Amino acid sequence: MKKVVIIIFILLLSSIKIYSDNARYVTHKAKKGDGITTILVKYNLQVNKFNVDFFKENNKTNLNSDFGLYIGKEYFLPIRIFKYDGKSIRSSLEINDLEFAKKIQSYNMNLFRKKIKNSDYKIDQEIWLPLSFDNEKSNENSEKITNKIDNKKIKENIPRNIVEPLFGEKYKNVTVSSNSLSNCIFYLISGHGGPDPGAIGYKDGNELHEDEYAYDVTLRFARKLMENGAEVYIIVQDENDGIRDEKYLNNSSNEYHINKKPIPLIQKDRLSERIIIINDLYNQNKSKNKKQYCVEIHVDSRYTGQKVDIFFYYQNANSEGKKLANALMTTIKEKYDKAQPGRGYQGSVSQRGLYTLRKALPTTVFIEIGNIQNPRDQIRIIESNNRQAIANWLCDGFIYNSMGK
Question: What's the pTM value of the predicted model, to 2 decimals?
Answer without folding.
Answer: 0.64
